[in-house]
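Sample entry (502 residues):
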Amino acid sequence: MIPSCEKGNNMEPVTVPVYVETEEYVDLGLDGLLFATKNVGAKSPEDSGDYFAWGETKPKSYYEWKTYKWAEPTTEEHYVYDEITFSKYYYLGFDNPDYAFLQPEDDAATVILGEGWRTPTFEEMIELVKCDYRRAVKNGVFGYEYIGPNGNSIFLPACGDILWDEIINKEYGAKYWCSDCPSGTAATILDINEHGAPWGGKECRYLGLPIRPVKSEKAPVANELIFNVLDCLIGQAKQLLATINPLDYSTDDYQSLEDAYKSAVDIRENIEKRDGINRDKQNAVNDAAKRLRLAIIDFKPLPKPSDIKAVDLGLSVRWASANIGARNEDEYGYYISWGELTPKPIGFYRWEDYLLCKEVNEANNDYSQLTKYVTASKWGEVDNKTRLDLEDDAAHAFLGGNWRMPTTEEAKELFDKCTFEEILRQGEHVMKVTGPNGNYILFPYAGYATWQTRVVFTVFCWTSDLVPDYPVRAYGFQLTGFPNPMQRTDRIDGLTVRAVCP
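Predicted structure, serialized as tokens:
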């Protein structure tokens, strides 16, 4: 719920949108449509709430055609897909609107929440394409946040759907009922993919899906409320900037929030000085509010060494619970060039930007002149170092103590003695690695960074060992690269780092 805010000036009222957020509903700035803050039957925005078959008003324990309220079998014993008939909402096309959309008496949102609330049509639900969207975790629950054109936002949990008596597809996208019924067997849904993009789809009517209700009622229009969302966001940003320690945040994130805050204040002051409010001015207020909302959402503290724990897998060393630079086991963490201690922006994983390189032969980068970890004179002054010193070990630099990057032998031990299982977690595939003693760690598919891009869909981490006969490369271990996990890769590439300790 947005706290009370100072109102704007006392100009004469004009007819413009009023953007509000209450404990019950949110106006996202989508043509007057108000979205509920939570699903039907939910106690909080992150709660899945109840699951309903389409056109039913009560949740149940088993979801199939045989238990579907409006399905009638051709025989008492069998519900054959092609032979099901319907007592209501059977296919008549859109020439008969009484059967093309849910009627109020069969709409769970209306029956449970009362008059005014309803299941949205697909045309209304797909309005979410006008929002900025992103994957999000709210109070430990994975889902998607949609930031409307006016800066207000809602959270839709990825709650899956129920087939028979089992929740399936949980945390892999999300599906929500719409009120349209284009055929007897199927009804329309909002189908959110794993990245949060809203799409249209259809599902069998007997499945159990959640409902995010809407209503079209509007609050009285008053010019003094034009800035209400922007004012509240300005207040939130001001409090954040005044109370946090800038050293706990990345320079880019802090600067983005500060810039968005200053811009919002300037826009607020400049527009308030002008006479009247028109659509262009309203759009400027909306844009400032949305930019500030996004900056606040993205403003997260930097990871700390204390976020990472040592996990005993029953091996010769303990493995870190997360990549360095990650706040938890689900985050990708930092991409580091071998022998460097800090990440770089995409585009800077090049020999020209590599700290242990003093000269680059542009005709053939393999002949770069290295300043350390050199085993042949054509690559620089030979020191015959083939394993990282602690001073060049990113894991040790970040975590301290006895933490370090694993050797190739330790990486091979992980591969040889552990079991590997690809699982779905918070909408993404991760590799679960279980040790001989039953303990496990997770590796996100963070991929790796090259000079011009980032490649995902793999698990690829550095070891501390150089490739002795080709010292412009070092060994990484790729858990998704069976059967050979050890990979020779250019030292300049950005790989994730998973630390080990005794």
